[in-house]
Amino acid sequence: MSHNTTLPTIYTLVKTHKVPVDVDIATMKLEELKVRPIVSCSGSPTERLASLATLIITPLLNFIPCHLKNIHHHLQLLRELKPTDLRGLSFYTADVCALFTNVNVERSIEYVIELATAHWHDITTFGLKPVDLHRIMEVVLRNSYFTFNGRLYQQIYGAFIGCSVSPPCAIITVYMLERNSIYTDPFYINSPLRKLYVRYVDDSGGLARNEQEAITNCRIISDKDEDGRIKWEVEYPKKGEYVAFLDTEVKVGTDGNISTRYYRKPQNKGITLSYQSHHEHPTKCAVAKNYYRLRLCVDTTA
Q: Which of 88, 94, 149, 214 has the maximal Cβ count within 10 Å?
């Protein structure tokens, strides 16, 4: 039994990066705004179960070869590549469209249990068995109720953005599609992706000889989704141009050398943390210092 809990509540965040730079967001109509639905599960009946499941399955991400831990991991992998191996190739990016809301929850649970079972003795399971984890995840992900304007609703497809177990589930789900497609021997041996293919949640980056090959790589992954809901938007650079990925822009030169530089979307307002906030002074200083350190770490053109 769960006591002193509240039902999850949905709210939306405006995708400000989707608003054109020359448009004042205050002048836009509500139906013109693109938003991200967030279901806050804080204090919900399943919050603690979700936290337990998250503790168990998050270490499984270490067994996903393309998983990026952070931007520094991304830069490390780029700088390990040899120019002689990159001649004639370009770095492209691809974004899964609305990943969380397009995940098949039942199939995602099966994927997680399959990967967890394979590495059960390599992770902390708190004395549980795979069947116990399966039951916990079903309770958390299938009881997708939320409130809005005083009414109760149920999300019938996809996972909550706002539930702690959703990100690792989504990452593992896409990996299982990748494992059965681009990581199969006949494809992988002859593909530039064997040199570099990375993904941070729903943003992936890889190497390809041309734009059509990049699109084909993503289509091969999508074809493994039995529901046909996992789709990609591919961005392939024009000759000599950079392509944005996370907080970087990446370019492979004709000589095979990789150049990176710091990236901020044009819509970025530079608003991070007010100096008048109640955060401790060392926190404010650390935020500013980390921005400078990241810029120096990323930029090879300075």
A: 214
Identify the bridge partners of residue 91 per DSSP, sorted by sequence position.
207
Angle, CA 194 vertex, CA 215 and CA 169 arms, to 5°: 70
Which 3-state string (H, E, C) describes 217-274? HHHHHHCCCCCCCCCEEEECCCCCCCEEECCEEEEECCCCCEEEEECCCCCCCCCCCC
Whole-model pTM? 0.92
What the block records as the tokens of 138 is 């079903």
What span, in angstroms and rounded, lies between the C-alpha atoms of 143 and 7? Answer: 11
Query: For residues 302 and 298, what is the distance between their CA atoms, to the nearest angstrom?
Result: 10
Q: Cα Rg for the chain, rounded, in angstroms?
A: 21
The per-residue pLDDT for 1 is: 54
In degrees, rounded to 5, the angle at the alpha carbon of residue 300 between the alpha carbons of residues 297 and 301 is 130
- pLDDT at residue 121, rounded to an integer: 96
**Angle at 241 (CA atoms; ends 252, 270), nearest 5 degrees:** 105
Residue length of the chain: 302
Token pair of 56 as six digits: 């168990």
Q: What stretches in the chain show pLDDT beneath 70? A: 1-2, 302
Cβ within 8 Å of residue 244, ≥6 positions away:
93, 235, 263, 265
Task: Note the pLDDT of residue 20.
Answer: 85
The pLDDT value given to residue 268: 76
Q: Tell me whether strands 35-40 and 151-154 are parallel, antiparallel or unpaired.
A: unpaired
* Pair of tokens at residue 246: 């996370």
For residue 151, count CB atoms less than 10 angstroms from its CB and return exposed for 0-12, middle for 13-18, buried for 19 or more: exposed
Dist CA 38 CA 186 (whole Å): 40
Q: What is the pLDDT of residue 232?
A: 97
Burial tier of 212 (Cβ tally within 10 Å: 0-12, 13-18, 19+): exposed
* Residue 40, beta-bridge partner list: 9
Two tokens at 84?
């002689």
